[in-house]
Amino acid sequence: MLFKLGSLLLHPAFKYALIVLALLFPLFASNEYQVYVMASAFVWAIAVYGLNIITGFCGQLNLAHGGFFALGAYTLGLLSADYGWSFWPAFVAALLFTAFLGFLVGVVSLRLKEHYFAIFTLCVGFIIYLLLDKWEELTHGPIGVRDIAAPNGFGLVDFTQTVPFYYLVLAFLVFAMWFMGKLSRSLLGRTFVAIRNGDELAQSLGINLMRNKTLAFVLSTTYAGMAGALYAGMIRFIGPEDANVQHTFDMITYLLVGGIGTISGPLLGTVGIVWITQSLQFLEEYRMIIFGPLLVILVIFFPRGFVGSFLTWMHRESQKQAAPSKKKESRVSTGKGVENNA
């Protein structure tokens, strides 16, 4: 019974059912705040999908991911608030800028391996935070950037309203997941996984490590810039704290809980933890007393995340169900052989 239910959850039609539920969510939400929280969760999920490319697929732990998220937000915010750009040109500029910086940082940092790479990117993230906080002539320093442009609407659609903006973010999330699915099934995605499984093995197969790692890093930072720009358009105010390394660790938590290296794991982990955090708001600063042990339990019993553990269980069950049929086929073939010999 559980195996049939699991097969149903893996069916392609289930993904379309989830999209339909997401489209209908604003109609069933109790208030506008719940729609806002879900839109915020979708924005963070886009950033987590970027982290999934470089960490889940390629096996490189980028601790500057939150910094690139903030750079995307600041690029859009400064261009719109200080230079009068409209949202969409500033949005494209944010993607290009974070991709370019991702290329520069990747070319330097990806020559390092394992924890050396993680430490280097942690330093990069801290440098980004210091620049945003101290470079007052450009970034406004601790005051932050206000009056950021909202996405330009069309016709009767006004993206300054919560519900239309929710559908805009949902469209970007669907595109991010679609691209992730295509990437995972492509030769490039398999190349990333080969690098994750071992640099020396990948190199022996003729894979150019630096080129592919850099490409993964650029794709990852572009996702972060996209999420940051959408975040700036939603909040309409940003500050240096948006580059705090705590955001990177939050995104790592979302990824680990949902399932690292999976397609739906980043979304499940992000949405689940965001809503759990919201439900514990009444505890104020004491909510971490409950939230912390809950995360520890999840990591202990679901070491590959919810989606990763579920896929592992489904694989084992399918092997168990396939084993009796293989034995039966083996007996039948053996019987035919005996009969022929006779």
TrEMBL record:
Pfam families: BPD_transp_2 (PF02653). The keyword Oxidoreductase does not apply. Signal peptide: none annotated. InterPro entries: ABC_transp_permease, LivM-like. The chain crosses the membrane at residues 12-29, 35-54, 61-81, 87-108, 115-132, 164-181, 215-239, 251-276, 288-307. It is a multi-pass membrane protein. Residues 319-342 are annotated as: Disordered. GO terms for cellular component: plasma membrane. This is Branched-chain amino acid ABC transporter permease. One of its GO terms (molecular function) is branched-chain amino acid transmembrane transporter activity. It is found in: Cell inner membrane. Its main location: membrane. The keyword RNA-binding does not apply. Keywords: Cell membrane, Membrane, Transmembrane, Transmembrane helix. It comes from Marinobacter nanhaiticus D15-8W.
